[in-house]
Design a protein that fits this description.
By secondary structure, the chain is of the alpha/beta class. It has helices spanning 2-6, 11-22, 28-37, 44-57, 64-68, 81-91, 102-115, 138-150, 162-169, 204-211, 279-282, 328-335, 356-362, 405-411, 494-507; strands spanning 79-80, 120-121, 133-135, 173-176, 194-197, 221-223, 243-247, 266-270, 276-278, 290-293, 301-303, 320-324, 344-349, 368-373, 395-399, 419-426, 430-431, 442-449, 452-454, 464-468, 473-474, 486-490, 512-514. 27% of the residues lie in helices and 19% in strands. It has a 15-stranded parallel β-sheet, with helices on one face. A 3-stranded antiparallel β-sheet has the order 1-3-2. The protein has a 3-stranded parallel β-sheet with strand order 17-19-21, with no helix packed on it.
Length: 516
């Protein structure tokens, strides 16, 4: 009660200190020490900041850099969890933990920061309820910046009083957040490990001319944001680079020097242009783990495949590839073992002539598959055999695909499929054969026009059902199946809305209707 009294009724202060104490050993000594720490006479508006500082002091060492990294992001940012974890990994913040994948360890770090009320959970993915975004309270961000600058962890050049700090202490990380930032020529680059830009008006042309100099050889993370003006010879000296994100405009192209960055682990290419990546060049990036390519207006693909290329090198480290337009060169390369350890794959085909069978049969470790394609007269699963189905694949998203009963039959055979999302289908009969979908947990239907949706009593029924803007006929039986626990329907058509309302009255089903 005395500790609560010292919090002066401030909810954030109470939550933070309560969570901190919940993680400590229950002892009188610890609680008395905490009381003494919060008993410093302060004005009410400074109490919360002081208590946040106390919580920071008791952070485990492995969480401290992860927490301070939130100073990188501008005020009121909705922070992408995937981007945040990729940055943590590139910075080397994530410690190995048994046989757990590094991404899973990073997620546990984020969960711990959320449990301590230092980070706020944001939006969740409907397809698997995973955390999509997070954010931090303004006061917590102020603490992050204060500690990050004091410990020379990071500097924000646009922040008042940071210019002298940059020149005198040589910051390890720079975050460009506002216009009017100190010119690059004033910064001492000898100790800079990370450079991250959020300013759309920042000149990446001037930035690249400076960063490409040999003085930035220690740089590990380079994110130029959505600024333009990349030159072809910008990156040859950045041999320690682990993380690179570029936005390429129609007047720029992928710098050839990029493929000389042999330490590169994560490459993000964005912009509305067509990419044509040489497989010979790509094979130089032997440590590449993630290759994420933005959706170009005309598509992008890999070319220049020769079987002899794979005789000495393969991309064994590559686990995430998104999004690529299937080509014969790439398909043949996958067949011959280009990237045998892919776990997440996104394909985007604008026409037929490619086979999904190759990817399913050769990528034995595939866990997540996303396919978006159109203008194809063939069934997406044409040629796929039962023994081609990956034993580890748990999530599938299909968008704008031609549909047939054979598609539903094949989807029901994936042995470990837990999450299925179907988007933008026309006249799709989603009738699950009896005994199919043995482990399906989540079904998300988005913009399904026409057709019928039906599951049988003998089927394994998903626990979570999400329906968004669908004009198909639902068998009322599906909403009453044993095992269905969570139903979310957004923008239902009048017939579906009436059916749900009637079933809610008659059977007391739990269903959330959202009218948008």
């Amino acid at each position: 009660m005395k500790i609560v009294e010292k919090c002066k009724g401030l909810p954030l202060a109470i939550l933070v200190i309560a969570r901190m104490l919940a993680g400590e050993k229950r002892s009188t000594a610890i609680w008395n020490r905490t009381l003494a720490d919060v008993s410093v006479p302060l004005e009410k508006n400074k109490v919360c900041f002081a208590i946040l500082g106390l919580s920071y002091r008791y952070l485990p060492l492995n969480l401290t850099p992860c927490f301070l990294y939130f100073a990188v992001f501008p005020e009121d940012s909705d922070i992408s969890v995937r981007s945040l974890i990729a940055l943590w990994l590139a910075e080397g913040f994530i410690e190995p933990s048994g046989n757990l994948p590094p991404e899973q360890v990073a997620e546990s770090y984020l969960d711990q920061l959320i449990d301590r009320n230092l980070v706020q959970a944001g939006k969740r993915r409907t397809i698997d309820d995973g955390l999509k975004t997070c954010r931090i309270h303004d006061l917590v961000r102020e603490l992050c910046i204060d500690k990050a600058m004091h410990e020379n962890f990071m500097s924000i050049p646009s922040r008042k009083g940071s210019t002298s700090l940059i020149n005198n202490i040589k910051p390890r990380r720079l975050s460009i957040q506002q216009q009017g930032t100190t010119p690059l020529s004033n910064w001492d680059p000898s100790s800079v490990r990370s450079f991250i830009n959020f300013n759309l008006h920042f000149s990446s042309l001037a930035c690249c001319k400076t960063i490409s100099s040999s003085k930035y050889k220690l740089l590990r993370v380079l994110d130029l944001g959505e600024s333009h003006g990349i030159q072809s010879d910008d990156f040859s000296n950045l041999v320690n680079l682990r993380y690179l994100r570029l936005f390429l405009s129609s007047k720029s192209s992928i710098p050839e020097s990029l493929f000389e960055l042999w330490n590169l682990q994560m490459l993000f290419l964005e912009g509305d242009i067509s990419y044509n990546i040489s497989l010979r060049s790509l094979l130089k990036l032997q440590h590449l783990q993630q290759l994420v390519i933005g959706k170009g207006g005309k598509g992008h693909k890999f070319s220049g495949y020769r079987k002899a290329l794979l005789s000495k090198k393969q991309l064994h480290s590559l686990e995430v590839l998104s999004t690529t337009y299937p080509s014969k060169d790439f398909e043949n390369a996958v067949k011959d073992g280009l990237c045998p350890n892919i776990k997440k794959l996104a394909l985007c085909g604008v026409e037929g002539g490619w086979s999904l069978q190759t990817y399913l049969a050769r990528l034995n470790y595939l866990q997540v598959l996303k396919i978006s394609f159109s203008n194809s007269k063939d069934d997406i699963f044409s040629g796929v055999r039962d023994f081609d189905l990956p034993k580890n694949l748990t999530k599938i998203t299909l968008k704008s695909s031609t549909w047939s009963d054979a598609s539903m039959n094949m989807l029901g055979k994936f042995p470990e499929l837990t999450t299925l999302k179907l988007v933008n289908l026309n006249h799709a009969n989603l009738i699950a054969p009896e005994g199919s979908f043995l482990k399906l947990n989540t079904l998300h239907l988005d913009t399904i026009r026409g057709g019928e949706v039906r599951f049988f009593k003998t089927n394994t029924v998903p626990e979570h059902l999400y329906v968004t803007k669908c004009c198909c006929d639902f068998d009322k039986h599906i909403f009453l199946l044993r095992g269905l626990e969570d139903i979310n329907i957004v923008s239902p058509n009048p017939r579906l809305e009436l059916l749900i309302q009637r079933l809610q009255q008659e059977k007391s089903i739990r269903c959330r209707l959202k009218m948008h």
